[in-house]
Amino acid sequence: MDDAVLVYTTFPDEETALAVGEALVREKLAACVNVIPGMKSVYAWKGAIERGSEAVAIVKSRAGLQEALGAALKARHPYQTPIVLFIPVAGGDPATLEWLMAETGAPAR
């Protein structure tokens, strides 16, 4: 079985995050995208310290889709340099992992 992976990314607002998340799920690049609005960020950008409001998106997928998922996410993302961090999952409930694999088109074991 392919390994599960989480992708951490941020968006300028909740609606953009939900729209991109829905596209990723429809394309079976993700089983689920959790959107958490209302995050405040402080970050360095082009030599300046910036502050802003964002929405966090946590994408549940599998490692075998990492390249395609990253490309699809960046193609739809409004930021010039979006944060796309792949976080390996060390384990999980077997039923959860089976659901994640099934929803992202992984072959049955």
CATH class identity = Alpha Beta
CATH architecture: 2-Layer Sandwich
How many helices?
3
> What is the CA–CA distance across the termini?
6 Å
Shape: elongated
Q: For the report, how would you describe the main beta sheet?
A: 4 strands, antiparallel
According to CATH, what is the topology? Alpha-Beta Plaits
Note poorly predicted spans: none
Which strands sit side by side, in order, in the main sheet? 2-3-1-4
Number of DSSP strands? 4
What is the ordering of alpha helices and beta strands? EHEEHEH
Count of separate structural domains: 1
Q: In terms of structural class, how would the helical and strand content be classed?
A: alpha+beta
Mean pLDDT: 94
Q: Report Rg.
A: 15 Å
What can you see in these coordinates?
With 109 residues, the protein is an alpha+beta fold. The chain has a single domain (4-103), classed as 2-Layer Sandwich (Alpha-Beta Plaits), CATH 3.30.70.120. Helices cover 31% and strands 38% of the residues. The protein is built from 3 helices and 4 strands; from the N terminus they run βαββαβα. Strands 2-3-1-4 form a 4-stranded antiparallel β-sheet. A hairpin with a 2-residue loop joins strand 2 (32-45) and strand 3 (48-62). It is elongated, with a radius of gyration of 15 Å. The mean pLDDT is 94.
